[in-house]
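name: query_chain
kind: protein
chains: 1
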Amino acid sequence: MKLAPHLHRLGNDIVACYLIDTPEGITLVDAGLPGHWRDLQDELRSLGKTADDIRGLVLTHGDSDHIGFAERLRSEHGVPVFVHAADAVRTRTGEKPKVAFGPMRLGPTLGFFGYSIRKNALRPRYVSEVTEISDGDVLDLPGNPVIVGMPGHSPGSVAVHVPIADALFVGDALTTRHVLTGRGGPQPAPFTDDPAQALDSLDRIAGLSASWVLPGHGAPWRTSPAKVGEAVRNA
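structure:
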């Protein structure tokens, strides 16, 4: 789905990832679930492009519902996968701490897990080789993505700022639809390693310029990053 010039979303409000289309090629942010491979192919065809036009995939963090088709893209098309060094092991192995689920409602929870199963989430493919990145890096990829460290949801969670798309991709630093309760609006994301640190990290994006704040779960949010921290904390 096209959101704006250069900016496309794959998936839906349950699980989403993003495509940035530029004259220099395509950059992806996150890879959703394995079954989103078909969504990616459909979006590429609509643009008259193929996977060979993708120059890189940037992960906001290494959880299984964000690395979905990453290994397939890397192994079959040679696309490099970038992830913060602190999440490199999680991306390669799936190793992560156990966290409390928190509040949930039956319908939304079943909807989340049902959608995940339909998109082949029960058979994740971890990423054999990654390129490690750090806070402050500007990647040599279409759109020149800027990496902003956002530890909390995971140690290596990042936001990805792409000025050409007027967009800030925040992964699970926040959500606009809680997958376990169905509650809409900006709020802390579930399955977070360190909730207090995740809230503190929201201040790191306050000075950035963007019209879109784009989470991995929930509706795209038209707002200024300066307003994000207060809105999420008030939730």
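note: The chain has a mean pLDDT of 97.
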